[in-house]
Amino acid sequence: MFRDRVKQGEFAEWEENYGHLYGTSAKTMKACLEKGFDLILDIEARGAKRLKENFPGGIFVFILPPSLDELKRRLNRRGFENEHTKEKRVKNALDEIREIVWYDYIIFNDRLETAIEALKSIYVAEKSRRERLANKIKDFFV
Hints:
142 residues; 7 helices
């Protein structure tokens, strides 16, 4: 059923991760954007790259762990069936991290409160961009 929906173009992006299928509804996303809502999506790098191509006005933020050692600690806490699965997860995480070169912003999640403030700051700054406010400021140029 999911793959049928993919073929019908129902997803703005979709990916298969570790045998599970995930996707973002194009219809829902477009409806929200048309109403002027801002969307925050938590998606992996391949899906984000597809969205960046299809939604050029989007802002893309990559949240990194503070270090490689901490990444491995965080993955270890999830518990894996075996060592092979753990190694695969670490490799996949590093592959995703290497995608940061095309993201707009990078946040290191070393302290949750600091990471949240950084994300808020990005949001406020992007909402204040001149081109995003063009309709509100045009009357000043009459």
